[in-house]
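Mods, move this if it's the wrong board.
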Amino acid sequence: MGIHPTAVVAPGACLGSGVTAGPHSVIEDDTVLGDGCEIRAHAVVKRYTEMGPGNVVHEGAVLGGEPQDLSFDGSPSRLVIGARNRIREAVTIHRSVRAGQATVVGSDCFIMGCVHIAHDCHVGDRVIMANNTALAGHVRIDEGAFLSGGVVVHQFCRVGRLAMVGGNTKLTQDALPFVITDGHPGRALGLNAVGLRRAGIGRDQRLALKEAFRLLVRSALPLETALDRMTAIGDPLVDEMTAFVRTSQRGFAHAAGGQV
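Not the wrong board. Structure tokens:
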């Protein structure tokens, strides 16, 4: 298709080879679009946005908008997006609130319709976010996580690697890696067994994670005791879960409505 006659491409935009821009799309100055990016009808790529190759941006999405933060003073900040992402209709992703800093989205993500990613979020590779999910500022979503439709994530929360978050979940604390979190507020329910198998995690490591989940969430042990026993398991994925808990600033969603 190339650049549609009604598309507005600013002279200061840097477009790679094979970039297409649909009817009434807008690509502002100070943007970088990698080879083969496709910007569909009425989508807007705003200034200070950088995208790797092969991204497809569907109708009505707005990328790189100014952050919705009262402290924002208009300073230059960035949105950096990796490669081969599918960004569906009416998605909004805002640039950082801090001068010289960036909101970051990785590669090979599937971001479905009406998702909002606020300023200073970091979204890892191969993340899936279903329709109407909303991330507040400074949220971190680690690699391979799956957020179902209508999930709302409080600012500064984290969602761990290969976690799954159920539909309409309210996350006010961190969602453990490798675990299904669901509810209002979110509760840790059990291992994300399907996601782990799909990621190629073998049976022995899944069993180790199952024991770690029991120690951390089901055993009623004091937190430090549970973490020490998890470390004694000697599995790298369990160590990853342990490190996630130890570095949590907001605590993590516990089972049965409790929080640690």
